[in-house]
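Lecture notes, continued. The same structure-token format from the folding unit now serves as the input rather than the output. Read the line below as a description of shape only.
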């Protein structure tokens, strides 16, 4: 019932009756979850030398996260992408940091759902290594410097899931203490941890009512529920959910399924790449509700994105409607 009401709110966002009904259903869900007592903190599986066939059977098809222990340790990116190396190669260039509502801390987003800042790359690297608060999230930096794509093992990234649709790439770089709050999205991905230590927490989408994301119709969902349990007054029952945790070391590769809620904190200066791919079965199985929202009621919806990508190709600003970052290789 909560999922149905959440879907309807995207079509009738000003309906007070829908808001009241959804709030009442949420309270019943909270009471049910709390009746089970406190939740547990479980470890994500850490597997070494996991074969593609076992990965697909045990993790991809079941929608479970897994750490591929050291699977990228010998990749060129892990061996060569140090902060000093990137500074020598690109330090004089200007980059853009884009902070989106719900994917950044409140103080990083200024009077808008998205805030962009241009900064010299060498200056940004200095503040990351010095423990500054600036964090590069979901950046299309590999579009700006496409030669870096050659340092990722494309055969591995596409061969493990048997993916023939291609990959999208987003760059992450941040100092100790920087974090990305709880969020989820339709696209499953591998995260290649190139430098530093990252701590992840995961929650299945079963607990949508507890996390209570705003019905904004974005390409992602977000929740302000704090993984440290500091705001249980706003998100009661959050402490009664079983959560999963993983700590990534340099060279580790994480698999995150479709619609899996996750938050991430950097424990040291980090460099990583999110490698997203398309897996329709997982998108539908993990959440028919959120996939339906994304397909029909999103802002933009997948139908609108397809229309402007493949039919209305003569619009000069159609790039603003694209579903995924422009870096897409096959």
């Amino acid at each position: 019932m909560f999922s149905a009401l959440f879907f309807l709110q995207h079509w009738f966002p000003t309906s007070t009756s829908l808001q009241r009904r959804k709030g009442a259903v949420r309270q019943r869900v909270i009471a049910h979850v709390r009746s089970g007592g406190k939740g547990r903190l479980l470890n994500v599986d850490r597997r070494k030398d996991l074969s593609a066939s076992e990965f697909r059977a045990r993790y991809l098809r079941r929608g479970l996260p897994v750490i591929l222990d050291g699977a990228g340790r010998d990749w060129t990116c892990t061996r060569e992408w140090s902060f000093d190396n990137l500074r020598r190669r690109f330090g004089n260039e200007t980059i853009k940091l884009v902070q989106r509502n719900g994917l950044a801390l409140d103080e990083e987003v200024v009077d808008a759902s998205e805030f962009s800042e241009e900064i010299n790359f060498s200056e940004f690297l200095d503040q990351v290594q010095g423990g500054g608060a600036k964090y590069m999230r979901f950046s299309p930096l590999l579009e700006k410097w496409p030669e870096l794509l050659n340092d990722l093992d494309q055969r591995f990234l596409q061969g493990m899931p048997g993916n023939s649709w291609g990959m999208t790439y987003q760059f992450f770089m941040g100092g100790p203490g920087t974090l990305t709050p709880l969020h989820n999205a339709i696209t499953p991905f591998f995260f290649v941890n190139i430098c530093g230590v990252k701590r992840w927490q995961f929650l299945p989408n079963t607990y949508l009512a507890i996390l209570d994301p705003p019905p904004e119709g974005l390409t992602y969902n977000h929740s302000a529920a704090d993984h440290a349990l500091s705001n249980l007054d706003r998100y009661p029952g959050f402490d009664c959910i079983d959560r999963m945790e993983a700590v990534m070391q340099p060279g580790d590769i994480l698999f995150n399924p479709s619609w899996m809620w996750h938050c991430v904190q950097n424990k040291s200066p980090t460099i990583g790449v999110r490698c997203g791919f398309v897996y329709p079965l997982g998108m539908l199985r993990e959440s028919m509700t959120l996939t339906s929202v994304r397909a029909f009621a999103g802002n933009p919806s997948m139908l609108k994105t397809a229309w402007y990508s493949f039919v209305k190709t003569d619009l000069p600003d159609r790039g603003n409607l694209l579903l995924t970052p422009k870096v897409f290789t096959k």
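Point for the exam: Confidence is low (pLDDT under 50) at residues 317-330.
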